[in-house]
Amino acid sequence: MKLKLIFLLTFIVFAAIIASLLFRNQNGRLVANEKTLVGTSLLNTPIYQLTSDEWFASIFYQTPNFFSSDGSEFLFRARGLGPFYLYLVNPDSGAMRKVSSDVHFGWMPAWLDDAQKIYIGKGGAIKSVDVSNWEEEEFSLPTENWISFLDVQGNRILFVEEESRLGDDIKHIGLSVVNTDGSNYRQLYLADWETVFYLDHPMFLADGEILFLTRGVDRDFTGDFNKPWIVSADGGLRQIPVQCSHYDVHPDGDKILCGSEGYVIDLFGNILMSFTELSGHGAWSPDGDIFLMTTYPEMMNEENAKGVITLVTFPGGEKTALVEHQSTYDSSLGVHIQPNAQFSPDGRYVIYESDLGTREISRLYLVELP
Question: What is the pTM of this model?
Answer without folding.
Answer: 0.87
